[in-house]
Amino acid sequence: MRRLTCQLSAYPDYLVYRMGLDFAGKYHTDAEYRNMQWKQILRWMDGKFGQWGCGMPDPPDSYSPVTLASVHLFSWLFGSQVVYSALQFPETPVYPLADMDDLFAFNPESAIVRERLEGLLGATRSLIDKHGPNAVTVPFHSAEMDGIYDLENTHCPLTIAYKLFGERILLEIYDNPEGVAHVFREIMNMTRDMGERFRMIAGLEKPRHVLMSACSACFVSPEHWERMVMPLVEEYCGERPVFFHSCGSVNSHLPAFGRLGEKLPFLKFDCRESAGIDIQAAARAMPGVEISYMMSPALCLTRTPEDMAMAVRKAVNDAGDSPMNLILMLPHDTPDAIVDAFFQTCVEMGAEPRKNAGFRFV
């Protein structure tokens, strides 16, 4: 019997408009304030959607030194500024290395990287000294994500390089593949080293699982991704089970992902309805791997409850015998009837709402 689960996710604007969350700069720059707000979010979600297992009535403390995902963290480390917004996650809009003349000059030990990284390491130490290691989440590590525990999380080198160099890195794949290969390898080495330094501060062992995000895979051909990116991902993950994420339009890449999944023990393939993912093709390419499928946020605003029910049934049926986790991501105008239709249909199809940690804030 295959396992089916379901859960909620939300854009920041949903919580800003619905519960009055203050999501301005202080949320991202003040760890004490962020912990207080995060606990408030979980209590509010429990009160509103607790019947579907969402939120927590008495959440534990969870402090973090930074809210930037690894792709934005790299951009910030190399010189980009962070732009905060009351309604969305922080951005690093500048490609800090777009004008670098020689890709072989890419230097993970540059002065600005050392200065910013040491500052972040110091902030992490301070939080751990004050609150203890069990209450602090360090960069490149997740205690739990969608039912998988103890994860090393990062993005593939192409995704990080794109945030550093912009579209130039895509052109250099053709004009200077050796330079691109150098950058990709240095990014993976830097990721590994930084993860080890943060874990050392927290007293954590090497995580048992990997969350690897290939958000920019759709920017290159499947052949380029398989030749230039996949070997580094395989080397980085080693023999650890992998939670593999790709939010772009990657139907043409599914066979390559499947070949990676034959080399690594894939646990999940995390993808998006809004990217037009062919669930049947994904199930064929990665047999037995759980498909974690996020329903289109835009269609939450145009679908009727009947439409939502039909979409859920189609997704579950398209997955065939594959395990599946269905995610509903909420923009702020989402009617409550859409949420109810989503969960009611999931349960009718045999899905179990995720408890406590069943709310993913992305």
Concise summary:
The chain is α/β, with parallel strands linked by helices.
Q: Which properties best describe this structure?
A:
362 residues, alpha/beta, ten-stranded mixed beta sheet, 14 helices, 10 strands, 46% helix
Describe this structure in words.
- The structure is a single chain.
- The mean pLDDT is 94.
- With 362 residues, the protein is of the alpha/beta class.
- The chain contains 14 helices and 10 strands.
- Strands 1, 2, 3, 4, 5, 6, 7, 8, 9 and 10 form a 10-stranded mixed β-sheet that branches.
- The protein is 46% helix and 15% strand.
- The chain has helices spanning 12-19, 25-29, 31-49, 70-77, 111-131, 157-165, 168-175, 177-202, 222-237, 254-263, 279-285, 297-300, 305-318, 336-348, and strands at 4-10, 141-145, 148-155, 209-213, 242-245, 266-272, 290-295, 324-330, 352-353, 359-361.
Explain the layout of strands and helices.
Blueprint: E1 4-10, H1 12-19, H2 25-29, H3 31-49, H4 70-77, H5 111-131, E2 141-145, E3 148-155, H6 157-165, H7 168-175, H8 177-202, E4 209-213, H9 222-237, E5 242-245, H10 254-263, E6 266-272, H11 279-285, E7 290-295, H12 297-300, H13 305-318, E8 324-330, H14 336-348, E9 352-353, E10 359-361
Parallel strand pairs: 1-8, 1-9, 1-10, 3-4, 4-5, 5-6, 6-7, 7-8
Antiparallel strand pairs: 2-3
Helix pairs in contact: 4-6, 5-8, 6-8, 7-8, 8-9, 9-10, 10-11, 13-14
